[in-house]
Structure formats: structure tokens, C-alpha cells
């Protein structure tokens, strides 16, 4: 993770991507709850990457939203996954192809996937409540007995 942060800072990613959801305008609708100070109480968030301008999306909660493959292709050739993206290509993070990240490429992918992983839920999915599992009624007593022995499915946990 430290190596990934060094690559992130060294490549200047923080100029266009913030890692701090500000309490202004529609930031909360776009990126989730306003950032809290406890989100930045670790060595990998010092100094905080506030960004210099918002050209690309806020990355403070990016981890786990997209696959490693998506991020690899995005670093290699951004327009192939984000039409019209102003992000430059980073081919030097790979050995000639997006499915062959080099050491720095792997470090960057790991760091990006880590961002926001400490969150209990992700902004766009907070309103999602899984539908209750409806099981068909069982007519035989033996099937009901078998069901009684099975652990409950579902529960009240919210899916991340």
C-alpha cells in the first residue's frame, strides 16, 4: 500500500482526483457522506490528498467499486472504459499490455482498491435493502422438519 501511495503521489494523480468529500454543493449526492476526520487517521492518508481541482472523480471511496481489470485498462488506456476521459495514459505501469501490470502498476491497483475499504457501506448503495427471501410453502412434514434444522438465510444484515 505504501508503494501504491508513492506511485499515486509521484504520478500526480492527486492533482485531478481528490480523496476528500467536501461539505459543499452536491458533493454528498455524488460521492457519499462528507468526509470525517477519523477516515484519515492512518499513515497512508497523511498528508490528506485534498486535490487541487476536481477533474476526475473523488477516489476516497473507490475501493471495491470496480474490478482490478477495469482499473488496469483505465490506467493503460482511459478512453477505452471512460469515453472522453481527460486522464492521460500510464503505459509505463505495465509490461506492454493492461493484463501485465509491472511492480508499480500492481502497487497502484492495490492502493486504489484499498481507498474507502474501511467504510461500512458505499455511497451509491446505501439505499439498497435486499428483498426478503420468500421460500415456497412446504406441504410435507419431513420437509418442514428439514427446514427447521437449516440455518436461517438472509437476516437483517445489509449487503455491501
Structure explained in plain terms:
- With 160 residues, the chain is mainly α.
- It has a single domain, classed as Cytochrome Bc1 Complex, Chain D, domain 2.
- It is built from 5 helices and no strands.
- It has helices at 2-10, 27-31, 68-76, 103-114, 141-149.
- The chain is globular and about 40 Å long.
Detail the topology: elements first, then pairings.
Layout lengths: L1 H9 L16 H5 L36 H9 L26 H12 L26 H9 L11
Order of H and E elements:
HHHHH
Give a count of the beta strands, DSSP E runs of length 2 or more: 0
Count of alpha and pi helical runs:
5
Could you name the CATH class? Answer: Mainly Alpha
Mean pLDDT: 72
The CATH superfamily turns out to be Cytochrome c-like domain
Looking at CATH, which topology would you report?
Cytochrome Bc1 Complex, Chain D, domain 2
Large-scale geometry: globular
For the report, how would you describe the main beta sheet?
none
Helix content: 25-40%
Query: What Rg do the Cα atoms give?
Result: 21 Å
CATH architecture: Orthogonal Bundle
Strand content: under 5%
Number of domains: 1
Helical/strand content category:
mainly alpha
Name the features.
160 residues, Cytochrome Bc1 Complex, Chain D, domain 2, 5 helices
How is this structure best summarized?
This protein has 160 residues and is an all-alpha fold. It is built from five helices and no strands. The protein has helices at residues 2-10, 27-31, 68-76, 103-114, 141-149.
Amino acid at each position: 500500500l505504501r508503494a501504491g501511495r508513492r506511485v499515486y503521489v509521484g504520478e500526480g494523480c492527486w492533482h485531478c482526483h481528490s480523496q476528500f468529500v467536501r461539505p459543499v454543493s452536491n458533493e454528498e449526492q455524488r460521492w457519499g457522506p462528507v468526509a470525517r476526520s477519523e477516515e484519515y487517521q492512518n499513515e497512508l492518508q497523511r498528508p490528506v490528498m485534498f486535490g487541487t481541482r476536481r477533474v476526475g472523480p473523488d477516489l476516497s471511496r473507490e475501493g471495491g467499486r470496480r474490478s482490478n481489470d477495469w482499473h488496469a485498462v483505465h490506467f493503460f488506456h482511459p478512453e477505452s472504459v471512460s469515453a472522453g476521459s481527460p486522464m492521460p495514459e500510464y503505459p509505463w505501469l505495465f509490461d506492454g499490455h493492461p493484463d501485465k501490470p509491472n511492480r508499480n502498476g500492481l502497487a497502484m491497483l492495490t492502493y486504489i482498491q484499498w481507498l474507502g475499504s474501511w467504510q461500512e457501506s458505499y455511497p451509491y448503495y446505501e439505499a439498497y435493502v435486499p428483498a426478503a427471501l420468500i421460500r415456497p410453502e412446504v406441504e410435507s412434514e419431513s420437509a418442514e422438519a428439514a427446514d427447521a434444522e437449516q440455518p436461517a438465510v438472509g437476516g437483517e444484515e445489509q449487503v455491501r
